[in-house]
Design goal:
Mean pLDDT: 96
Number of strands: 3
Low-confidence stretches: none
Distance between the termini: 61 Å
Strand content: under 5%
Radius of gyration: 30 Å
Shape: flat
Largest sheet: 3 strands, mixed
Structural class: mainly alpha
Helix content: 55-70%
Order of helices and strands: HHHHHEHHHHEEHHH
Strand order of the largest sheet: 1-3-2
Length: 279
Amino acid sequence: MSIYARLGFNSSDPATNALSMPYSSNVMVQMDLLPPLIKPWQANAIGNSAVSGFFMNPVANVTQSIWDTSNTLITLTSGLTASPANNTVNTAMANVYATSTVLSANSAQTYLYITNRQSNVTPPNSDTSTPHYNTAIAQGKMLSYITSQSDNISNSSVMLGSFTSVTLGNTLANLYSTMHTLTNILANTITYSTDPITGDPHNTTNVSAANASALQNVVSTVNFVMSFYPAQDSAFFQNSANVLHDYGTVSQFNNLGASQNYLLQNYIGTPTLLTNLNS
């Protein structure tokens, strides 16, 4: 279907069709001079109302897998102790439990939330502290011009500084692979039992100290990545917003008219402003 056909103009009705009058030659010249607004594929998409499915979150699946594995680790390591007794293993299991709890309840959830926004998979909402594709790209475009003039910046850091989290798919995939493997190793070393007196679970593991420490380290690293980068992206996004706010404040003094300049110079401009205007 074409875009025009989609509008549903009723040309078969005389009263409606009477509204359809040919453009004048001058209007047609202007139409011909107008740069293309859309490409052929875009016209086809609009005509067929097929304008969704253009965005994806490339780290959504691995983030969910990490989230699921962290929940598995919470179950496996809750109250888990080494048999035979091993302080290194016991400490590692306690740390894995604590970090997996944070990972499940906070870090993985936050990571999925922010990367869904960075990917434009979810629409903007009232959240103005977390980067969203639409707002972060708009900020980046404006700041590219500003920082090019103010600091001679000629790279993409201003455009992409709010998007680190969504680019870490390979890093997360490698970390998850190690985390998943070590989780399976741990699961296969656990003996499930019940205290004969209290009836409470009394689960033990004979996992090696090396594997216990490795699991502790990878879970800690995953949690660091999933907490550090969203915070960094959000800080850059907020810094960008603050800079643009300040730009809006000072740019009002560009291209002053004579009357406005007179008012500022003689009545309402502070010495600081007048020094800047007259420099």
